[in-house]
Write a structure and sequence with these properties.
With 271 residues, the chain is of the alpha+beta class. 46% of the residues lie in helices and 25% in strands. A hairpin with a 3-residue loop joins β8 and β9. It is globular.
Length: 271
C-alpha cells in the first residue's frame, strides 16, 4: 500500500471510530460487592485505586489489584466478588468502528495494564466539573487506555478494518431498526443482495453471522431499557416487538443466562 492509500485508510478509520460512554463513576465498598454470572453487552473498565477483588469466568480467576486497570470484554459472562475492601473508578463503554463493530468483541480474556492512580483521578474530575476541556482530556485518556489494551490483542491491520467499511450502512440499519422482527433476510434485502451471499461474506469478514449481530444489538437495547427506564417487562417486550413477554424472557435468558426481571434487580446494584 502506498503512502497516500495508507493516509486515506487512516482517515477513513479515524473518522468512523467512536467511544460511547454509558457510566463513569467511583465506587467504594466491601463484601457486598458480589455479582454472580453477569452478562454485559458493553466493555467494562475497572481502575483499581485500593483494595482487592476478583473476577471469575470459564477461563479462570483474575485478582484485581491496585495500580492496574482491567478490561472486561463485552458479550462475556463473569462473576465479580470482593471479600475485603474495594475502591475503584469504573467505566462502562464501547469502542466501535463503522457504527457497530466492537474492537473488543472477539476477546474472551480479561486484560490488564498498569496505570497511575493520581493521573487517572485528575482526568476523572471531568465527571464533577462538566467542563469541555476536562471532558476532552478524559476522552483522550480513555482512548489511550484502550490503545494500550489493543496492543495486547492480535493486530488488526488497516486493510482488515477497511474491509468492514462496506457494512457501515448495514450496521447503522440494524441499530436503527433492531427488534425481534428484524431478520437476516430483511437486512439482506436492505443491502440489495441474497441472504446466503451476505451470510458468506459477512461471516468471512467479521467472524460473526448477521443473526448474531442482530441478537447482540437486541440484547444491548433490552439491557439499556432495563437499566435506564421504568418500563415494565411487558412494555419492553412490546417495544422490541416480541410476540409476548414470555418469549422475550426466554430469548433474554438464552443469551445472558438470566431473566429480564433478575437482570433489572441486579443492575440496580451492579457497578
Amino acid at each position: 500500500m502506498d503512502t497516500e492509500s495508507k493516509i486515506n485508510s487512516f482517515l477513513t478509520i479515524y473518522n468512523n471510530l467512536s467511544l460511547t460512554l454509558y457510566v463513569c463513576q467511583r465506587y467504594t465498598g466491601g463484601s457486598e460487592w458480589y455479582h454472580p454470572d453477569v452478562y454485559s453487552s458493553f466493555t467494562r473498565l475497572y481502575f483499581m485505586m485500593d483494595g482487592e477483588s476478583s473476577i471469575q469466568n470459564q477461563q479462570g480467576r483474575v485478582i484485581l489489584r491496585p495500580g492496574y486497570v482491567y478490561l472486561i470484554p463485552p458479550f462475556t459472562t463473569n462473576t465479580y466478588q470482593c471479600t475485603t475492601h474495594l475502591d475503584k473508578w469504573y467505566v462502562h463503554c464501547n469502542v466501535e468502528v463503522y457504527s457497530s463493530y466492537n474492537l473488543f468483541a472477539g476477546s474472551n480474556s480479561i486484560l490488564s495494564c498498569p496505570f497511575h492512580p493520581m493521573e487517572a483521578t485528575s482526568y476523572f474530575r471531568a465527571v464533577q466539573t462538566g467542563q469541555i476541556q476536562d471532558t476532552v482530556a478524559l476522552t483522550a485518556y480513555l482512548y489511550k487506555t484502550m490503545a494500550s489494551f489493543l496492543q495486547l490483542l492480535p493486530e488488526v491491520d488497516f486493510q482488515t478494518l477497511r474491509s468492514l467499511e462496506k457494512y457501515k450502512e448495514m450496521h447503522r440499519y440494524i441499530k436503527d431498526h433492531v427488534s425481534a422482527a428484524l431478520t437476516p433476510k430483511t437486512v439482506a434485502s436492505y443491502m440489495g443482495c441474497k441472504e446466503n451471499t451476505l451470510y458468506k461474506h459477512y461471516k468471512a469478514d467479521t467472524g460473526f453471522t448477521v443473526k448474531q449481530t442482530i441478537d447482540r444489538q437486541l440484547i444491548a437495547k433490552a439491557q439499556m431499557l432495563l437499566d435506564t427506564t421504568a418500563l415494565s417487562i411487558r412494555m419492553i417486550s412490546d417495544e422490541l416487538e416480541f410476540c409476548d413477554e414470555f418469549y422475550f424472557s426466554n430469548f433474554f435468558h438464552r443469551l445472558t443466562g438470566m431473566r429480564p426481571a433478575a437482570y433489572r434487580k441486579r443492575s440496580l446494584f451492579m457497578d
